[in-house]
Specification:
Shape of chain A: globular
Radius of gyration of chain A: 20 Å
CATH architecture of the largest domain in chain A: 2-Layer Sandwich
Strand order of the largest sheet of chain A: 6-5-4-9-8-7
Oligomer: homodimer
Low-confidence stretches of chain A: 1-10
Number of domains of chain A: 2
Largest interface: A-B, 52 and 51 residues
CATH class of the largest domain in chain A: Alpha Beta
Helix content of chain A: 40-55%
Number of helices of chain A: 9
Number of strands of chain A: 9
Strand content of chain A: 15-25%
CATH superfamily of the largest domain in chain A: GAF domain
């Protein structure tokens, strides 16, 4: 952004987007002071931009004075092709897989160097996960992440390694060489595993959804209690991912 | 907006939102010229704001030069409480109802004087509908719309009537008095019907999802081929809607 803030128009519209950036899965509701603090904007600017967004419908005011993202932004965001085409192609297959397994399912796409969860199905019987729709997961520590990473270019692996491989549990792969070997195995097997590498007690297996051009579109993953469960479910996950791939553009 | 365009900051940030407003279910991909035309902005302004939104991730450029809503806006929009809380509460019940009926299901909320579809489940066996997630439906001609309208304040009915009751099919209720009577019947029965009033060949029944404060949160509807089918399914829809209501805030 350096050098651009001299252009008043860009600066003002960028500030509006900065207000939106304050909100995420961990911070779905914020006070004016929190928006100003998180965005680095002066309080008066934050107040004015919040008012602008409220008038438009992008923010809503709660009874306790905090602000939340409004339905207007949801409506516009639902037009994103990752959401619309992919999710519509995926949901019937996800329902079938869910009915057959009753385990947690996740559909994730790449967003920079992370996996973004765009759909999930879960039952009260399934293992609890921290994944939420709209939430991000590390690529090196999750089944969907490894499936996405293994079928992307080498450049992405370099970026992920350069950014560091944070240890999420004692089982997380934190050595670049071991991660590269694990990804080669994902390509060979057609599925990626996470053996308690993200959350203790949770094991996942995921399969890539590839477009007709061979490029990675998404990964479909299942999270279960044990290695035995995901070994048993891997063929079902792979079958569902192939079923989705037949319907994506 | 009159009188506000003299404030440069508001004007610029409002223009950015105007660019976003160009996109909807019927127009998911637009050229620069189309954005300028639909927004009324000069071409140079539209170009600059599109660049700003692309850099942020709110718009993406397709290979053919058109622009689409980007995943960044979807991620932020997914934080909207209507989407997050309501949808998460509703999906398990919708899955159950779908499994039992294999018909089209819709979850809709009020957005101004229209019903906004925030979730749908459909099977290839079900009657084709024009409803899409993120799409709007008229309140007077649909099952979900009547359920939402019947359990809202009288002011909304006045607004809807004042805006006119467009005839969607020969069966659409276009007389205010008949609509008011139909809504009284919806309140009595606890479900709203549409007998080919929106689409010829499609009949729907919907039940309201009321919050603990008694206020309307959403409507759950099912679309089927015949009046006999929806009569048979009405108790199931009502049961599912009551199930959802137990989980919404």
């Amino acid at each position: 952004m350096a050098g651009r803030t001299n252009t008043p128009g860009q600066s003002v519209s960028r500030r509006l987007l900065t207000v939106l950036d304050c909100f995420d899965v961990a911070h779905p509701a914020l006070t004016l002071t929190e928006v100003a603090g998180r965005s680095g904007l002066p309080l008066s600017t934050a107040r004015r931009l919040i008012a602008e967004l409220r008038e438009w419908g992008g923010l809503e005011r709660l009874d306790d004075g905090r602000y939340r993202i409004g339905i207007r932004l949801w409506t516009i965001g639902s037009l994103a092709p990752q959401q619309r085409g992919l999710r519509e192609a995926a949901l019937p297959h996800m329902h079938d897989l869910f009915q057959a397994t009753q385990e947690n399912l996740q559909l994730a796409v790449l967003e920079g160097t992370r996996a973004l969860c765009i759909e999930k199905l879960s039952s009260t019987r399934a293992v609890p996960t921290r994944t939420e729709v709209g939430g991000r997961l590390p690529l090196h520590a999750t089944g969907v992440g490894k499936a996405l990473l293994a079928f992307s270019g080498r450049g992405l692996l370099r970026e992920v390694v350069d950014a560091g491989l944070p240890r999420m549990t004692p089982h997380t792969i934190t050595q670049p060489g071991r991660l590269a070997a694990a990804l080669a195995e994902v390509r060979r097997a057609g599925v990626g595993y996470s053996y308690e590498e993200m959350t203790l007690g949770a094991v996942s297996v995921a399969a890539p959804v590839l477009g007709v051009d061979g490029r990675i579109r998404a990964a479909l993953g299942i999270v279960a209690h044990s290695r035995a469960a995901v070994d048993r479910l891997a063929p079902a996950v792979r079958t569902a991912a192939l079923g989705i791939a037949r319907w994506v553009e």
